Amino acid sequence: MVSEYLKQNTAEFHDAAEKLFSSDKIFSKTFTLEDYKKIINTNYLMLLHSENKIFSSLSDKFSEKLHLDKRVKLPLIEKDLASLDLKNQTASHDFELANVHEALGAMYVIEGSTLGGNVIAKQLSKTEGFDDVTFNFLDAIRKIQDRCGRISKKF
Q: Residue 110 CA to chain centroid, in angstroms?
């Protein structure tokens, strides 16, 4: 199955990302607001450089089936930047995609982080110091489902 293949062949990168963002601290409830700001800022920069390019690289066929117009996350994370008093930035380099396959791969990474973000938001909402934090970006999966209903796993 494709999902198993992708999971196995991206596990190393997934583990590296978890280590980079101190994910172990999330579940031990030692994650701080500064740690959270780092995650939000890094994800913001990733989306700033890639989201529009990915979505515009996908054909109309994929756009409709994947509900791309309802999956835009940059405005959600910009709300988090504002609530955390972090500054919006401008894209500092080009993000290039050679073809639709690379665009779909990049979207796979973003969607995977969206699913993980939902888990993180639930955990942080139970962590001391996060009582007044709104998780616009991390709670994106619920917002996407609200916008377009439950999306089928099949294309």
A: 5
